[in-house]
From TrEMBL:
Signal peptide coordinates: none
Membrane topology designation: Multi-pass membrane protein
Transmembrane segments: 12-29, 86-111, 123-147, 159-178, 184-204
SUPFAM superfamilies per UniProt: MFS general substrate transporter (SSF103473)
Residue stretches making up the Major facilitator superfamily (MFS) profile domain: 1-270
Organism for this UniProt entry: Raoultella terrigena (Klebsiella terrigena)
UniProt-annotated location(s): Membrane
UniProt family annotation: Belongs to the major facilitator superfamily. Phthalate permease family.
Sample GO molecular function, one term: transmembrane transporter activity
Statement: the UniProt record of this protein carries the keyword Cell membrane: yes
Name of the molecule in the record: D-glucarate permease
Gene3D superfamilies: MFS general substrate transporter like domains (1.20.1250.20)
Length: 270
């Protein structure tokens, strides 16, 4: 995207990425099927999948009863009134604050505060993203390994989240160095830590009441994306008079600290 912006302008990035998304959506429709509708599956495989606890008929039409709004509102209050669920929601808020920083403000930081060209910033910004991808996979592996070793879901989920978010706080050191390789290194470590700690949906699957898991997931997404609104505004307020983005990392450091401490305090039945 940095190369496209440099060569043909920022508007072409939207055409390219939007067109690519449309093409991928048709590929997705072609190759993704329900388990019991997949052309390459047989009954023995379906039985094996179902025996493992998977839902192979989850998209079948059911005569579900319509839930009154008053009852739905009561369910929302039940979720928000749970200290455990609120801790999970706040943790997702803090993790998403990092996500939005790297998507939006990190390239701006490289260009305005560090003097990189748009082309160079585009390539450089991909390094932390790759580290975040590796961290995301590794976080799941670590969580599963801890589950096998300890048998404690509490330890298996909280440990990667807390350690990952604490690792993300190293981005604050970018305020005190000038070497580009050190800046990228700290940011890559931060994104890597964010990836390790991004176990929010695993925690949701473990804790959300099954009858209202969709509603709980909606609140989970709502709290997470509120951070995109709040932190974008806070970044604007913290820009210095010279226009350089100097304090974005400090804001995200606070989010990392919050994400690293809020989930352990959730307690409850988790």
């Amino acid at each position: 995207m940095g190369w496209l912006t440099h060569e043909v302008g920022w508007s072409h990035v939207f055409f390219f990425m939007g067109g690519l998304g449309i093409v991928i959506s048709f590929v997705w429709l072609k190759v993704i099927h329900e388990p019991n509708q997949h052309p390459g599956v047989n009954q023995k495989e379906l039985d094996y999948i179902a025996a493992g606890g998977a839902l192979i008929n989850m998209d079948q039409k059911k005569n579900a009863q319509k839930v009154p709004f008053s009852e739905k509102w009561g369910q929302i209050k039940q979720l928000i009134g749970s200290r455990m669920m609120v801790g999970i929601y706040i943790g997702q808020y803090c993790i998403n604050a990092l996500t939005y920083f790297f998507i939006t403000w990190f390239p701006v930081y490289l260009v305005q505060a560090r003097g990189m060209s748009i082309l160079k910033a585009g390539f450089v910004a991909s390094v932390p993203a790759i580290c975040g991808f590796v961290g995301g996979v590794l976080g799941g592996i670590i969580s599963d390994w801890l589950m096998r070793r300890t048998g404690s879901l509490n330890i298996a989920r909280k440990t990667p989240i807390v350690l990952g978010m604490l690792l993300s706080m190293v981005m604050v050191f970018c305020n005190y160095v000038n070497a580009e390789w050190m800046i990228i290194g700290f940011m890559a470590m931060a994104f890597f830590g964010k990836g390790i700690g991004a176990l929010g949906w695993a925690v949701m699957a473990d804790t959300a009441p099954k009858e209202i898991s969709g509603l709980s997931g909606g609140l989970f997404n709502m709290f997470g994306n509120i951070s995109g609104i709040v932190h974008a505004y806070c970044h604007r307020l913290h820009r210095r008079d010279d226009g350089l983005v100097q304090r974005g990392a400090d804001l995200c450091r606070g989010a990392c600290a919050g994400g690293g401490t809020e989930l352990p305090g959730a307690g409850g039945g988790y």
